[in-house]
């Protein structure tokens, strides 16, 4: 199975409520994009470096915001070292770190934040189990 | 997904000082009880009769209750090591060898057995509901640990068999109580003071600042100060008071040698807390002993009939929140003096928290500082905080401190926020249901209730 199908079939799939994520991607910790949905914003390399290093220390991200393709997200409470959550208006983003990559999900109304957390973190846990 | 609209949800806020519980949609909690319980070690208890649960008086329950309560089998087979007495009435009655133990320590749950006995008492004796029928919204400290969250979820679903649950952060609920999604919440509670920034209904990362100075600390300072002035505070159980002639009373001291030190202290603190709540007032400017030496005193009548006069202390004790180093001048509080040097005053905590937040929302946070919690019911605290912040904040910031005019609303702001949230139609899809718990386990709560 290619990485693209992980994104298309397991992240961009209908959620419990019937709504969808608006965009999703899997990005390597080294900055390479493994796969992304067509709707995923074009993330700049420095944006990737910023959020990857924020898993270790989030204070800079907390003060200056999480950027994905130039869009700014406020950083709300996540799980230190594992999950970063961002909020932008009624939508937001969830980033889950695995051994080698970061799984990213972006949602907007009417998708609930918890649905995005669930699907992104489930994927992340699966990849960690598979030693990715 | 759980459709929680049909039956009213229960909102439960367990704080360091008291536990607040009631129905969602109401404007104040139905039950408020201490987060402390009385505990008698098994070695001092008379041999248990065959059916202890039948004999239980209101408010008493056995630490290792019977299997009806759904405890795991291993707990049932264990001999109870202590008996717990929960609730205002059960604790108001003096018992030999009864120690007083807190449920929380440093703002987090410390003794799960005590917590269970408080929840049992709250749900069964006070609200008189069957927990199986009601979804439960629990307030949690903004700095709660993942382990604590999972344990709460397991207890609620496995022991109480509740149909659905949601965990919400104290700061978020306070923010909702005042109808704002974004604010800086200053929660002056019983055990500690917490400053946290809330954006769009979520606590911001890194923006939580805490200090151990809360209502209980101020009560201790009040007690120590009064004692250092030669005043003896006598708990009600230590004497009988008879009217010998109209208007003239005679005290008869009683002696109960087996009363524990912790129980005596608990009752003395209750008196000191009332003195504090009745006479204290935050001074307009930084407290200085010399400036207040000629201040008129305020009388207060203690339970045993002696009237005390409180002078400068009624300003000095609340000022500890703004100026923690003042603790060095309070006798017998030296143990705290070392930690005090690292503790910052309320205005500094606010500025520190805002400076850790995103640059784009700092302006908005400065103009919506919410003051809440039981200790925030202190007179003049809002005015003083606003004044100090205007002096310390950046020039461009427009500082606005908001607090409900009503002391009840300040004290119960977290609970009221929970009551509002749990009765919103759009919230009903957020519940973590029992079936989801059974399928995914307790760690699911971090995703459903981030």
TrEMBL record, chain A:
Pfam families linked: Profilin
GO molecular function: actin binding
Keywords: Actin-binding, Cytoplasm, Cytoskeleton
Localization terms from the record: Cytoplasm, Cytoskeleton
InterPro entries registered for this protein in UniProt: PFN, PFN_euk, PFN_sf, Profilin_CS
UniProt cross-references to Gene3D superfamilies, sorted A to Z: Dynein light chain 2a, cytoplasmic
CC per GO annotation: cytoskeleton
Superkingdom, natural source: Eukaryota
Protein family according to the UniProt entry: Belongs to the profilin family.
Oligomeric form and interacting partners: Occurs in many kinds of cells as a complex with monomeric actin in a 1:1 ratio.
Function (record text): Binds to actin and affects the structure of the cytoskeleton. At high concentrations, profilin prevents the polymerization of actin, whereas it enhances it at low concentrations.
Name used for this protein in its record: Profilin
Organism: Riccia fluitans
TrEMBL record, chain B:
Main location per the UniProt record: cytoplasm
Recorded superkingdom: Eukaryota
Pfam families (UniProt xref): Actin
Region described as Disordered: spans on this chain: 47-79
Subcellular location: Cytoplasm; Nucleus
InterPro entries cross-referenced by the UniProt entry: Actin, ATPase_NBD
GO CC, any one term: nucleus
The protein's role, per its UniProt record: Involved in several developmental processes including organization of plant organs, flowering time, anther development, flower senescence and fertility, probably by regulating the chromatin structure.
Similarity annotation: Belongs to the actin family. ARP4 subfamily.
Protein name as annotated: Actin-related protein 4
Organism: Riccia fluitans
